[in-house]
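Memo to structure team: turn this sequence into structure tokens by end of day. - J.P.
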Amino acid sequence: MAILQWGALTPDDREAVRELAQICLDHDGGLPQLVEDSFVDKYFFGDDTIAARDDLGELVAVASLTYDEAGNRLASGLVHPSMRRQGIGEQLVAWGRKESQGLPVKIVAESMSPEAESLFASSGFSRTFAEYVMFHDLSHISRVLLPEGVETEPFTDERARDFYIAYRESFGDRPGFPDPGEEEFLTFLKSDPEFRPEDSRVAYSRGGAPIGFVTVAGDWIDQVGVVPTWRGHRLGAHLVVRTLTALKAAGSSRVWLNVGVDNPSWELYRRLGFEVYGTRARYADRITPGAAAAIADAESELESGESDPPTAND
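Reply from structure team:
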């Protein structure tokens, strides 16, 4: 096992953490925003932090703990690709359990790897959510005609309710649908500083009913949905390629979207020219809080030597 020096992160480590996140994205893919300041601060500079450095002082692993609204501990971490399968991930998990003091731990992973998947499964965590992160390089955009009798219109305050209706009827039949109210949905949509109302569209049937929609923020297709009775008419495909064309004309070089790994729509996106860049996921404890605390204590007692991680913020 590599001999590492462990200690808490400091504000001076921000650039080194960003570089490590970029290395992990280049190797594994994932959410590209992970290297942005707001994401680095949110995921790696929480209430408790730990970092591992090699003999040259280079940052090779980090982890951070914070709290969610329910009081659960949220954990995020990174391990340099060249340092994996050496027990470092296991030490980060043990540190997280110890610092959580028996509270349930939820893992937030915006860049996944096979090593992380194996580590979380063997450490008592179950995956509760996973999405493919996909991108389109806009070099070739398919042409998909709008179904006959259908019209699309951009987002305006007057059409806002139609977007909500299309959203609710498109996704309401899915298990776990959050079912937000109209005000909550629209507030979330319009509060995004990169929301593009002119490129977000709602589709209407010949009779004027909202039957599909797409919302766009920055270079991202945020959501796209079609009501059940209009699926199979390539309306969703049209909304996607229309968005690609509009964003390319606006100067975008890539367009991104997230889609659930169990959602068959990802195959549609692939046929339209999207590629999988990586996976992001969430995990929850299978182990009871008391057992988690006992495991952490036992692992702490077994560890020894310079490579042992200290308690948080030592």
